[in-house]
Amino acid sequence: MSSLVALPILIPLVAAALMLVVRNLFAQRAISFAALLSSLATATAVLVDVWNTGDIAVSRLGGWPGSFAITLVSDGLSSVLVVVALVVTATVLLFAVGQQTPDEHSPYYHPVYMALVAGISQAFLAGDLFNLFVAFEVLLMASYVLLTLEGNREQIRSGTTYVVLNIIESVVLVMAVGLIFAATGTVSFAELPERIAALPDGVRMGLHLLLLIAFGIKAAVFPLFSWLPDSYPTAPSSASAVFAGLLTKVGVYCLIRVQTLLFPGELSNLVMVVGVSTMAIGVLGAISQHDMKRILSFHIISQIGYMVFGLGIGGAVAIAATIFYLIHHIPVKTSLFLVEGIIERNTGSSSLDDVSGLARKSPLLAVLFLIPAMSLAGFPPLSGFLAKFALVRGGLSAEQYIGVGVAIVVSLLTLVSMVKIWVGAFWGEVAPSSLNNSGGVLRQHRSMASATAILVGFTLVIAVAAGPLYEFATRASDQLLDIERYISAVRSAS
Amino acid sequence: MSIWAFALIAVLFAVGSYLLMERSLTRVALGVGVIGNGVNVLIIASGSDAGEAPIIGREGVLADPLPQALVLTAIVIGFALLTFLMTLAWRNWTITGNDEVEDDVEDRMITRRAEQTEKLGDVPHPEDVQT
Fold it and tell me: Do B70 and A179 touch (CB under 8 A)?
């Protein structure tokens, strides 16, 4: 089974290389889908194995002994995130193909998209810090290109901010890697915990803060989030859907690794305060906006706050809740951006001033929006409610009443801003600008609509299968907290 | 780590951070290059003292080859990033005729709206009076 671990990275990379030669659009689409679906199949096989046996799958590329090999580690958290990431990227690609926009027709779109997928999988599977840094660079480079593919004025403006801020993040990260290597003599996740624990307190805290800053910029937590609502709204809808769903969550995943594996339980109060302020400030930003994409972008920040809060509480219950939140959040957020993409494609605008009366025009689209929106706000039968309930329970059992209170108020405010989109875009008279066609909205954008429907269906599956999924999240969190098991799994791998 | 390597790293970081805070994209690109080299020197210096080489069979102390391999990767990545940033700056220059990073339009609108409300105080908004 461990030989399959590397395939979700290798298949997209080979596909990307192949598509630099094959320039035909239809061939490129076929290659992309084949690559994504075959990666998904292998990732699912690994997930099923990890789920059934409770083991950690480890692959050493090149078969070198000790810390010389590039190690890929797929434990419960990594394997489930790779599967979710591949489901989301495959449906978004279906959406992008149906969108019929110039950027998808560019011969570079598909290779770059595959590089992005490879980078995301690699970040989730990386077994050492430097490999993680390289994965970050691969996915960031791909995201730079996707963000600025059209090359118009607005994209160049926001793209520049995005690129410069992420370069600073990379500098901080590579500096942290260098200093950690200087202090401990290794970058492998399996060797670091012991050696870090042996360091003097001051050195340990400095290295920890450097890593938190680097991944905090990537995850867009409270003082470091300002790049996100500026850059995501200008990207093409398909690109911003992947960015919103996955890229910040890679940062959250790295924060989880830092807080559980490298520096277990340290600075958790700081992480908790950052989490609580992130959710409050994100949602306040969302309420003050008047453009759908920007409202949704601020919601990413607010939701990241929930996950970081859970991470800050620590302990098996809260971390299981964080993992469940992560799994629920990725498809929900992506599907909201996809619905917004359909609206923008149909009406030509994402501003609440220009769009109205969509519920009358296309009731099905309204349903597709309503399910993930209510899930994000945390309405009872949906996955968001279960995720928030688990998190609140974790917070209460750790007696973090202030944080829990803020979390509940923030989810009310989330509902307020979702209602703002609902009232602005879906209710009311059909606006003149959205009258540019006579047929149904969804009939014109069949593959966009079906991609969105698949993803919304996926969020419903998460809600229905919440019992087993939550049990899996609990097991994954136990695995995360049992550092010895991780170390011995990597050491004993052949 | 020798004091001279340390001084070099400090200077590179100082210059790089200063350039990064400029509004002109050319200077930002230069800053990225300088600060990136600062980090590279930092990693090299963390692995060994100056003048040592990671070659087996050579007399004396061997340097650890791993940091050097890391830096090679980091240099290549940094080069690609710098190239992309300069392409962006060029594109920006062909579109707008200058190479400054512009403000976010939405941000500016919200700030202006907030300033107006503050200035007007209790006086109703002009748009409300008309309707």
Answer: no
B50 vs B34: CA distance, rounded Å = 20
- Fold for the domain defined by B3-103: Helix Hairpins (1.10.287)
Whether ipTM tops 0.90, in short, is: no
User: Dihedral of CA B27/B31/B34/B36: which sign?
Assistant: negative
Instruction: State both tokens at A120.
Output: 């995301």
Give the minimum alpha-carbon distance from A153 to chain B in angstroms, rounded to a whole number. Answer: 7
In chain A, which residues have their Cβ closer than 8 Å to the Cβ of B72?
A: none
CA dist A47 and B69 (Å) reads: 33
**Taking the C-alpha atoms of A343, A349, A355 and A357 in order, what is their torsion angle to the nearest 10 degrees?**
-30
| pTM of this structure | 0.89
Cβ burial A351-360 (10 Å sphere, 16+ → b, else e): bbebbbbbbe
Inter-chain residue contact B25 with A156, CB threshold 8 Å = no
Counted residue by residue, chain A has a size of 494
Rounded to an integer, what distance in angstroms lies between the CA atom of residue A19 and that of residue A113?
11
CB within 8 A of A313, min separation 6: which ones? A268, A272, A394, A395, A398, A400, A403
Please write the tens of the pLDDT for every residue from A71-117: 888 888 899 999 999 999 999 988 888 877 777 778 888 899 999 99
Q: How many domains does chain A have?
A: 1
